[in-house]
Design goal:
Blueprint (H helix, E strand, L loop, with lengths): L9 E8 L1 H5 L5 H14 L3 E9 L9 H11 L5 E4 L9 H13 L3 E4 L9 H34 L11 E5 L11 E5 L3 H13 L5 H11 L11 H9 L7 E3 L2 E3 L10 H15 L16 E3 L4 E8 L4 E6 L9 E2 H11 L3 E3 L1 H48 L5 H44 L1 H7 L2 H11 E7 L2 E7 L1 H8 L3 E3 L6 H8 L11
Parallel strand pairs: 1-2, 1-3, 3-4, 9-14
Antiparallel strand pairs: 5-6, 7-8, 9-10, 10-11, 11-12, 13-16, 14-15
This protein binds zinc ion.
């Protein structure tokens, strides 16, 4: 490996394979290692070693391999890290910046083999950060999309998760609906009668939840781990409409689920009446996600703002969480609009937009190729199982198989087909999301304000964190906006520009004067 051109400094390769990669024959350990070795050989550094992390996602830096790499950087033992793609090392922006700064401080170069070589320029580093942010967003959105698949199952009348007490999960025996739900719930022959007894006893009004939980535990009512159910859990069970057929899962809803019922509606209603009598007017907690919660701070009390509904729930106000009160409340929508207006003030430089677009294109093309490869592989698998199914049927007809053998094989094949179909659904969701993300990034670079306004709650939060660390508010006015590290970096590089000269007070106070309300108590 030694050649005359080497500068005597050392380089390592960093290789990570997540469990998902391994399963889906993504870029394997061997391929990554080979690429790193090849690149190091071509480059100016001596090869030290390859560091591996297996079966872990890049969501955190708390990995054995990364820790080893960080030690090597800090001890100044290496001059470069080669990796197939820098998001192998860190996917969230904070970790990304942390690592990069650590490398800069210690004179270590990070080389992403499959990435265009922008790394060594300041702009390159900034575009890198932007994409790291979107990678992070992507990860969060993937979670959301998986949820969407579950919602869809729920809307079709299938309970999408681990069975509630009294039910159990089994493979769906129905050919027609297998594609939607490979697993369904049916009454558990042991637990269902006990759950029914719980409802009957509670409906008499003579017992409380504690007594019933204990007594029925002795008779065999327990959770999946064989432990006694928690009282709160039993209380929730008594209110759970799944027992009368209703399925509610996130955004998915179905009034008449397809599962078999063992509690009838009149019994359920009786239980509700008893519950209601016992609890009188227990207040319901309203949950609402406040967009700016976490971003608004009070500089006097060093605490965060929260918001709540007032005036018969028609208007909400943000306010400091200090107990003894603190200045004026700020009307929610108005304040959120003032913050949105701030996005009108920025634009990215042309060069920066071009680099982003180029990177997005490369990533998108790669994602699309991945999708096509995975889809084809699933379809091949499906075809193979369908062929097996045919063979199995033929064997039955020619009486080579017994009835039991035929059924066993049929069930196995159906189980696999259900699994494959489920993966296809998820793959489609992922593909759609890749398109969405590319679209969002492009809109974001061209018109930040529009992208922000169009964004979902989650995206808005991401855009906020993209630009802002926090806002300090006092007496109903934003007095200081503290930009995020990324935004500071971009401005320093002149890659993001203010369209209008900035003075903290003028545009903001002008906007906010309409949203200040007098102290809510006096209003
Ligand atoms: Zn305060």
């Amino acid at each position: 490996m030694e050649t005359k051109n080497k500068n005597g400094k050392l380089a390592i390769g960093y290789v990570r394979v997540s469990t998902k990669d391994q399963k889906e024959h993504g870029i394997s350990l061997e391929v990554q290692t080979k690429l790193c070795l090849h690149e190091i050989e071509q480059g100016p550094y001596e090869f030290l070693k390859i560091i591996y992390d297996k079966g872990l996602s890049a969501g955190t830096l708390n990995r054995r391999g990364v820790k080893e790499a960080i030690n090597l950087i800090q001890e100044k033992k290496i001059a470069a890290i080669y990796t197939v793609h820098t998001d192998r090392i860190a996917r969230n922006l904070e970790d990304h910046i942390y690592l990069r700064n650590l490398c800069i401080e210690n004179g270590v170069e990070i080389i992403g083999i499959n990435q265009p070589r922008f790394q060594n320029t300041a702009t390159g580093r900034a575009t890198d950060n932007v994409l790291a942010t979107f990678a992070e967003m992507h990860k969060e959105l993937t979670g959301e999309k998986v949820k969407d698949v579950l919602y869809a199952k729920a809307s079709e009348g299938f309970f999408p998760a681990a069975a509630p007490v009294g039910y159990m999960n089994i493979d769906n025996p129905d050919e027609e609906t297998k594609g939607i739900a490979s697993r369904i719930i049916v009454p558990d022959p042991i637990m269902a009668p006990l759950v029914k007894e719980l409802f009957i006893l509670y409906s008499t009004g003579n017992y409380n939840v504690y007594e019933l939980t204990d007594t029925l535990y002795e008779k065999g009512l327990k959770n999946r781990k064989g432990k006694k159910l928690q009282y709160g859990r039993v209380y929730e069970m008594l209110k759970n409409k799944i027992y009368i057929g209703e399925i509610k899962w996130g955004g998915g809803y179905c009034k008449k689920g397809r599962h078999e019922l063992f509690i009838d509606e009149s019994l359920f209603e009786k239980v509700q009446a008893v519950l209601h009598a016992h609890n009188g007017n227990r207040c319901k907690r309203r949950k609402y996600k406040w967009l700016l919660a976490g971003y608004l701070h009070c500089p006097i009390h060093k605490c965060k703002y929260t918001a709540e509904w007032h005036l018969k729930k028609k208007i909400a106000y943000y306010h400091c969480t200090n107990r003894n009160g603190c200045g004026k409340y700020i009307e929610q929508i108005g304040l959120e609009n003032v913050i949105a207006e701030k996005f009108k003030d920025f634009e990215f430089s042309e060069g920066f937009v071009d680099e982003i677009i180029e990177k997005v294109r490369l990533r998108f093309e790669k994602a699309r190729a991945d999708y096509e490869r995975k889809r084809q592989s699933l379809i091949n698998q499906r075809t193979a199982y369908e062929a097996k199914r045919k063979v199995n049927e033929n064997k039955l007809l020619s009486q080579v198989l017994t009835d039991e053998e035929f059924t066993r094989i049929k069930d196995e094949i159906n189980h696999e087909l259900g699994r494959i179909n489920e993966q296809l659904v998820e793959l489609e969701a992922e593909r759609g999301e890749n398109v969405d993300i590319a679209q969002e990034v492009l809109l974001f670079t061209k018109d930040i304000y529009k992208a922000y306004q169009k964004g979902s709650y989650l995206l808005k939060r991401h855009y906020l964190s993209f630009f802002w660390e926090k806002f300090e508010a006092q007496d109903g006015i934003i007095i200081k906006s503290i930009p995020s590290p990324l935004f500071r970096e971009l401005s320093a590089l002149n890659q993001v520009m203010y369209k209008t000269p900035q003075t903290e007070k003028s545009p903001i106070t002008a906007g906010i004067s309409q949203v200040i309300t007098n102290d809510i108590l006096g209003a």
